[in-house]
Amino acid sequence: MESKKQIPTESTNSNNGTQSVQGNDLRGSGWSMVSLLLVFYDVVAVNLAYFLSLWLRYDCQYTAIPTEYLAAWFMFAPLYGFVCFVAFKSANLYHSLWRFASYDELIRILVTTLVTGAFHGVFITLFFSQMPTSYYIISIGIQFFLVLSVRFAYRFILMERRKLKKAKQSAIASRVMLIGAGNAGRLILGDIQSAKEVNDTVCCIIDDDKSKWGKYINGVPIVGGREDILLNVSKYRIEKIYLAIPSASAEARRDILNICKESNCELKNLPGVYQFVAGDVQVSAMQDVKIEDLLGRKPVSVQVDEIYGLISDKVVLVTGGGGSIGSELCRQIARHNPKTLIVFDIYENNAHAIQLELRDQYPELDLEVLIGSVRDSRRLNQVFARFHPDVVFHAAAHKHVPLMEDSPCESIKNNAIGTYKTAYAAMAHNCKRFVLISTDKAVNPTNIMGASKRLCEMIVQTFDKNVRAGKFDQLPPIYTHGEDITDSHATTFRTPISSQTEFVAVRFGNVLGSNGSVVPHFKEQIAHGGPVTVTHPDIIRYFMTIPEAASLVLQAGAYANGGEIFVLDMGSPVKIDTLARNLIRLSGLRPDIDIKIEYTGLRPGEKLYEEKLMSEEGMRTTPNQLIHIGCPIPFDEELFMKQLLTLMDVAYAGDDEKIRTLVAEAVPTYHPAGAHGSEEKGEAFRLQMKDVEASEEAAAREEAPSAV
After folding, report:
1. pTM for this prediction
2. Which helix (H) or strand (E) holds 317?
3. Tens-digit pLDDT profile for residues 137-168
4. Rounded CA gap, 641 and 462, in Å?
5. Residue 156 backbone phi and psi in degrees, to 5
6. Which domains are assigned to the chain?
7. For residue 180, which of 247, 270, 257, 243 has the smallest C-alpha distance?
8. What is the C-alpha separation between 567 and 554, in angstroms, rounded?
9. Torsion-angle region of residue 30: left (phi > 0), alpha (psi -120 to 50) or beta?
10. CA within 13 Å, CB half, 543
């Protein structure tokens, strides 16, 4: 029978918490050469301690020590050496990992020294000789020192070696400035100083609390507040800046990062207070500063209970469910316990990706992933007839402005006609709520994509008004591609007898990180060494994150009464040029030096600025202070329906020139870029933005710095 080899292991003594080594050293005895040397040392040291006490008692003169005292010590030494060996072995002092020696080992050495010292005093007095009083007391102290020093010396030597190694590495290590002298900053500092794998050296600390200035944490000076960042970056030759203030507001974080990005240092950020609470405060938790950290706006907060009431135990359909917004909608919907989630998309790769993700994360979710087009009335009505969705989030759309300028008919077919067909299917099957995802480009549009989304908003308002009035005959089903109203499929989408569907739209700006957005494009250009291309130095946009956009859509669905256009307060607009420069700086590079910025000119249909609402729409508030409602603009619905049918015919005929003229007739606010003073309005808005920026900078200078 094959014998099994014993594998050395490290175990913990359950009684005293001592880490012990057991294994096959010296044929499995548990003894190593180090342990044997320690035994020999201890036998010599404990007896030497008592001899030294006699020697000290008699003024360090060996000849002055009385013979009877020397004889008593000499005769008792073997017995005492054996007793100390037994006591030390019982206390596990020969199997500890002394590189990790700590308070526990110190206490055990003290206790065994006192116990053996008491034994020595009693037995040498009873059986050999009465010794001087100082002999009993001083000996115990010397024994404790000798036994302790040899064991802790190993740890001390290792610590000194690490310090020397760290000092040598500091010459080539990255020089770090730490912002935040609170608990999170202290933990990050300790992790940097102790972690072998981290080749960083913290040179200075920044904190706005003046009472901390001039003091030290672990030998690192606190040199000043945020106004001293750039000065100390130069003074200490800083290469990296770590921001460790998880409880700071979005505005404070933005202000500090705006200073840091001027330093051309690499920036790292401890994202939020939740990581501090979870105990995940270490260098590995630091993340690259994201561009949304510089927006200086609190994330949109939503009422989870209201969203849960909208989604829970409901059949929810998301068109365009594989896209950036659609897929995030699906993720958030899946968390709110829907009865069934239906992902509907024309692009199978995206649909497949979100299917795999949701099935992995939510194995209990009743998920249906269907391929189809919102242009296909038959496919839509098959889906609605089979699943009878309670809530529809209509995210399917063409959204890229330059592409739609080159293919205007496709924009109308997919965005406007697709929205009409989806809305009609929802109404015909008595869906409870239909939420259109719109864009700020629908406000005073200068491009065909924005105009098509304005058509979508008008379609939604038309449906809501007619459903409320019970005028279903004013909303005829529309067919294309040879669809025959007399065929067997037509019965599923005839005019309904009744419906209570509520139709609303949600409008927001550009989404950071979405497919085709500027930020991923800029990052790719930076990764390739530039240049970074910006269309115009003065172009500005409103921005939000993908999770914010999805949360807004869900919240709007919960607030909906029908006919509203919900708008997110996205804070101040951001200059795309500033966005590009910030991304370059966050990459540790210098704009116009390391990475060039090139201005390519406005693309077809593009304007300098976007608006959230048309002035005539007005504004109403909701329980969420960051979500507002625009009042519907009245228009002739009967005329609009005739125009829409004509648009459909021309779009499918592929007449690009005529379609623009018809869109302008149907959408009075649509003025192609360059027409009707559009550029002059943009220039006026640019000047206005400069005034706003100047006033904000002046206010920031006057405001006293808040504590980090």
Report:
1. 0.60
2. strand 315-319
3. 888 888 888 888 877 777 677 666 766 665 55
4. 9
5. -65, -40
6. 12-166 (no CATH), 173-289 (3.40.50.720), 314-514+543-572+611-676 (3.40.50.720)
7. 243
8. 13
9. left
10. 24
